Amino acid sequence: LGFLPSLIIFLVFKDRGTFTRQESKEALNWQITWIIASVVLNIISAIVSAIVWGAVGYNNYGVAVFVSGLFTFIAWLPYLANLVFSIIAGIKVNGTGTGYRYPLALRLVK
After folding, report:
1. Residue-wise over 3-17: b if at least 16 C-beta within 10 A, else e?
2. In this structure, which of 21, 27, 71, 92 has its CB flanked by the most CB atoms within 10 Å?
3. Nearest to residue 6, comparing CAs of 82, 80, 81, 76?
4. How far apart are CA 110 and CA 86, in angstroms?
C-alpha cells in the first residue's frame, strides 16, 4: 500500500495530539523517502542490466546474470529497510510510548 496508510493516519488523526501528529508525520516522511529510493534504484537496476546484457549478451551469460541479479538485489534493499525500520518504529512507539526518528528519511512533510 506504500504511503497510503501513513497519509490516511496523518490526515485523520493528526489533531488527536502532538505525539500522534509527530509520529504519523515521521512515518509519512519515511514512506515517501522509501518510495523515492525504491523507484530510483529500480530504474538504475534496469538501466545497468540493459547495458550489461547489451554489452555482454549471450556470449558470457554467467556474468550478465550475476550483474543483473546483483543490481536486482540492490533494488530490493529499500523494501528490506522499510520492513526493518517500520517494525522497529512500531515496537518503540507502541511499546515504550517514545518517539522514533527514522534514519535517512527526507523531512518533506512539515
Report:
1. beebbebbeeebeee
2. 27
3. 82
4. 20
